[in-house]
């Protein structure tokens, strides 16, 4: 009975759809295949049904990606390339669309799928995070960290690969955990183009162990979203009457200065007040309390005008500005105190001398009887 039902269902599938009124039949595409053409990349390919008549109509194909990320689109070609994380498999379906004047007809779907990448449950890495950085001569570095899977044996060795466009490369230098498993990787220079907008960086981490098959893991990153912006350059800060004036240069980047925004972190060192100001230009003027000393730091990020925001840059070095008037008055009081104390001491000494108090206060040490008599005694009487 079951077999019969399945057979019936299959024949139904194979039968073309007959739109009402028109004598046109729409047949599903044939030989639908899915091929992994690069890391995290699938080539979907099919052929027109040889039985399909075209006459005065247009043939297109409706493609529906079911997993890992649902997506639907139509194309007049018979192939299409998709980038997706493939570790949990991939499935899609396609059907023929026949467009005749204002009539649109569609065939049944044909389905294709890729199985999940092999490996034991829990052996995949988790918590992958990656950051890129534009280095000075227009190169981009890539740094990733991850955690070993809960079920990964102690002897697991992980390997990280990145793919950007057609270039795939393995990590040249890893950092390991206490079990000597790789958990961190740095590419000091990559083929990532710093000026591109919205391009994807594919990261693939597989592994090997004597005790278990390690299931690979893949993740796609928008290159702009994981870029850690460089620090603003040439920051100069000055005081002009009651205003603080700051200017700086945009960070090292192929993007124009209009593409950046800044945070200005100001601390009044006298009152302890902290302020973070968002600034969209390269200079800044602010009324401040001139009796206070301030510390200033600036950091940068891309604004949303040119591309997706990345990570904030590190803070710049601290710049101090202004004189703390409180410190000054303390110094002044201290000096005054010193001067007056010494004056008083001097005065007291003088007075003591004048009143012959000196000797009374500090009587001379009694000396033993004179060995030498005065040879010329003078009679004062
Ligand atoms: C389409 O054209 C073919 C000949 O080119 C003809 O034999 C067929 O009947 C036509 N079909 C329809 C539905 O018009
Ligand atoms: C579909 O594939 C089969 C077997 O690989 C082949 O014999 C057939 O010619 C293909 N059909 C088309 C339309 O290419
Ligand atoms: C296609 O359409 C034109 C007019 O729209 C008609 O003259 C012609 O016969 C049609 N051809 C077929 C094969 O249906
Ligand atoms: C790893 O990711 C999970 C879920 O995203 C989170 O709950 C956990 O705190 C993360 N662990 C670490 C060490 O970051
Ligand atoms: C920057 O990249 C170019 C080629 O892309 C390479 O020749 C050069 O050595 C790189 N510079 C650094 C500092 O990595
Ligand atoms: C890991 O993946 C790379 C790239 O696909 C492949 O060349 C390599 O053989 C894989 N290693 C293991 C241990 O599966
Ligand atoms: C920073 O200032 C120095 C000296 O004032 C100058 O040579 C350099 O070109 C400046 N850098 C930028 C990026 O403007």
Describe this entry's structure for a reader.
Keywords: Glycoprotein, Membrane, Receptor, Signal, Transmembrane, Transmembrane helix. InterPro entries: FN3_sf (IPR036116), Ig-like_fold (IPR013783), Short_hematopoietin_rcpt_2_CS (IPR003532), TypeI_recpt_CBD (IPR015321). The chain has 381 residues and is mainly beta. It folds into 3 domains: 25-114, Immunoglobulin-like, CATH 2.60.40; 126-222, Immunoglobulin-like; 233-325, Immunoglobulin-like. It is built from 3 helices and 23 strands. Strands 3, 4, 6, 7 and 8 form a 5-stranded antiparallel beta sheet that branches. It is elongated. It starts with a helix and ends in a 20-residue tail after the last helix. Residues 1-15 and 368-375 have low confidence and may be disordered. Residues 30-31, 47, 50 line the site of one 2-acetamido-2-deoxy-beta-D-glucopyranose (NAG).
CATH superfamily of the largest domain: Immunoglobulins
- Name every ligand kind in the structure: 2-acetamido-2-deoxy-beta-D-glucopyranose
> What's the CATH class of the largest domain, please?
Mainly Beta
Order of helices and strands: HEEEEEEEEEEEEEEEEEEEEEEEHH
CATH topology tier name of the largest domain? Immunoglobulin-like
On the 0 to 100 scale, the average pLDDT is 85
Structural class: mainly beta
Ends apart, CA distance between termini: 159 Å
The tally of beta strands, per DSSP, is 23
Shape: elongated
Low-confidence stretches: 1-15, 368-375
Secondary-structure arrangement, i.e. CATH architecture of the largest domain: Sandwich
Total domain count: 3
Question: How many helical elements?
Answer: 3
Specify Rg, calculated over alpha carbons.
Answer: 41 Å
The helix content, as a percent range, equals 10-25%
Proportion of beta-strand residues: 35-45%
What characterizes the major β-sheet?
5 strands, antiparallel
GO cellular component, one term: external side of plasma membrane
Protein name: IL5RA protein
Pfam families: IL6Ra-bind
Signal peptide: 1-16
